[in-house]
Design brief:
The chain is α+β, with helices and mostly antiparallel strands. The protein has one domain. It is about 40% helix and about 10% strand. The chain contains seven helices and four strands. It has helices at about 5-25, 35, 55-75, 85, 105-110, 155-165, 180-185; strands at about 90-95, 125-130, 145-150, 170. A four-stranded antiparallel sheet has the order 2-3-1-4. The longest helix has 24 residues, at about 5-25.
Amino acid sequence: MTRNSQREDLKRSHLERGLSEAVAWAKRCRSDEPSMCLRTPELRPQDLIHHVASDIEREAIVSDVLDRRARLLLAEDVLAGSRLRERLRSGKLLLFDPIASLSGGGTSAVSKGFFDDANIPPWDSWVYYFEDKTVPDDAIFSTVLLSWVPDFFVRVTDKGIRANPEGCLSWATDASTGVTRALKHWNLLR
């Protein structure tokens, strides 16, 4: 196995793990308000990703949230059972470009708090942080925070995406990026 294919397999395994855990975690929601059930205190990041300057810092913040969620889910033993592709049918994947966000706050009210005032999706929904080195750094979605949106929040999330003037939010199915091409290649994007 070449070094590049090992790196790709590692990224794919992290992505699949993040997806499985985000889907499992979302099943714990007992509220119709995203701000009430997808921003749990035990997963709150120490810093928000729009406050930091580098991709390395953003990746570390996302990784920390994912690691804490994984430990909590492991303790609850909720990951056993159904296959990932079957679980993915119960929601949609969302792309957020933290660099392109102007933090206007318009999406928060429209999405009933799914997005915060900086357009950031709730940390409980985070799946993976990507840097797409195949596009210019200033291109939309050259950096992507991939998130999982459960079916019961798709409608309010869609309203937030449509209200977002800077275009830093998109359904993965509506974008053509390195991230979405990889997801399609791995049969993780419906």
